[in-house]
């Protein structure tokens, strides 16, 4: 019995994809964590038992179940059990606290809420029960860390047949306002994961890794890839370097990554012993979710001895474009790759718009949904970019990340890319700050490399002049920081915090 990854990608639902992969390779591993191994067959069988346990708790097809759980094998089992039942899942990042969690429970009208108990010193159960008391219809709170609901699958109804019903509510980060509830279907998640899998040219011999929260949209994105190609991934409940390196090495990881911040972290470790390959089996770093300066690409290839492919995605569209290992170095360094078949990209007044199966169905708030799509059904991203003649996407920034100085538009990303090449700079964020004379002034916030002589504004502007940057784009303010503020998912820089700090 053989099926190609492309044929598997035509599965109507995630549960159908699980079943088909389990029939093909039941004894091959899918998830690895410490000394635990879960096979594709066990993923199907144990998820059905968990689904039966959830059924006995009262979960039914269409029930809204929120879960705030770390990246663990048990979390994947719970999620696939809910997919087996046809419940509506609302994953919540484990690092979120009262404001974001309360908002997600209230807006989703969750009837059930799975939590890890006390995790990393924080009492999630206590928080969940406090929040439940504030809701008109409080959810049933239950712990799902060491033990999961379990019962005989004979009680289960048939699995869902449709993959186009909304069964997922993901949450945007909510860094500047309340989060948005993003509506996805099984088919939109399968489409996103298929794009990632096919672009990376992976095989059943690979070993991947999940160093990001499983509750992030990257969770199903990555898991779909495992199901399509039949290879395993190592799960990291808490990712930190150098502690996590033993997991990468002992399991023979061939594909790692996450986002630009992860690449930088691996580079820092590689530079401690440049003569020794950091992860001997590693052949590819891959990720997305944040801009990638060209110098990061070149540094990874040069110093780590592996490839780097980067892509473009967001909670609303988990995978839009992806670089491929056989792309040219120029395209891998300077673009976000190409879209897969079925993803339409349209550039309108410099802004990227999208239409395709991987695009979300909108937001929980119908007003937000109406504003998110244009008259032809294209999703309005708020990102700026253009397509090359050969169809590669180049991102140049975000609409809200354009600095308007004396009426002139300045791309923060253009300045950041140049400063990333400065030998004394480890990381940088360029922001616009209110200015009574200019409207906005350009401010560079810099993390310096260890041991580097402290930079001055004059030195930075001289360097940028030497790189050919126009005078009107030069920073007028320089701030040195020990660490840029980042979120806890893909470690994106939180520019709103920098604007608040330095305005």
UniProtKB/TrEMBL annotation:
Sections of the chain in a coiled coil: none
Gene3D superfamilies the record matches: 3.30.300.30, N-terminal domain of ligase-like (3.40.50.12780)
Source superkingdom: Bacteria
InterPro entries membership: AMP-bd_C, AMP-bd_C_sf, AMP-binding_CS, AMP-dep_synth/lig_dom, ANL_N_sf
Residues covered by the AMP-binding enzyme C-terminal domain: 414-488
Keywords: Ligase
Stretches assigned to the AMP-dependent synthetase/ligase domain: 19-364
Alphabetical list of Pfam families matching this protein: AMP-binding, AMP-binding_C
Record family assignment: Belongs to the ATP-dependent AMP-binding enzyme family.
Name of the protein described by the UniProt record: Class I adenylate-forming enzyme family protein
Organism: Streptomyces maoxianensis
